[in-house]
Amino acid sequence: MAKSVPKQEIGKNYNDFASKYDKAEAVPEFLGLNRLRKRLLSQAEGAVLEIAVGTGRNLQYYPAECRISAVDISDGMLGFAKKKADALGLKVDFQSMDAEALSFKDDSFDTVVDTLSTCTFLDPVKALGEMARVCKPGGKILLLEHGRSNRGWLGRFQDWRAEKHAKQLGCVWNKEPQDMVMDAGLHVISARQSFLGIFHTIVASPPAR
Ligand SMILES: C[S@@+](CC[C@H](N)C(=O)[O-])C[C@H]1O[C@@H](n2cnc3c(N)ncnc32)[C@H](O)[C@@H]1O
Predict the structure, then answer these.
(1) Among 60, 72, 119, 168, residue to substitute to test ligand 1 (most atoms within 8 Å of Cβ)
(2) Which domains does the chain have, with CATH numbers?
């Protein structure tokens, strides 16, 4: 597995990249990523926690009744997310926080969301465990992640480029999202792969405690 960059550097690198993030995402969003986000987030309800909110690309898709809290390790990314929330007229509780050590109490949220970020977490299984901890029993964990393609040639290409790809922003693009979810002990309700098997849309619930 490719080495990621240290955590302090990830936050700093995303601060530097924040103003370019939406432009860099424009093509995949246009090709259908935005539809995957919309479909997934239509299932959010009640008190919602979004982990690694980034520039806030998901904010526009939450049902109006949701009460949203959102965290990220990069203040630069949070700054852009705050601007989006203001433009949408949304009241969001933004906090700077590490996904692997959430400061929320157990069972605090009805829905926990993470999109395109387990690739960057140094210990994604720990972060998924934290998502399960803060999610109420019977609540939903909504994930849209990218990982190693299940098409042989593409998966091998990702393996070959993984080290180089991880250098800039710490995105390790050949992880296996479904394995990580299982390792964290989450109960998978549905899982679907798209875009040549790269994107995983997973609806899960926390394990019984
Ligand atoms: C690829 S971006 C995804 C942003 C957003 N979720 C989206 O779907 O567009 C990854 C985000 O994860 C954040 N991040 C990386 N490591 C983190 C950590 N340990 N805790 C919280 N946020 C983290 C980065 O700052 C960045 O905003």
Answers:
(1) 72
(2) 7-205 (3.40.50.150)
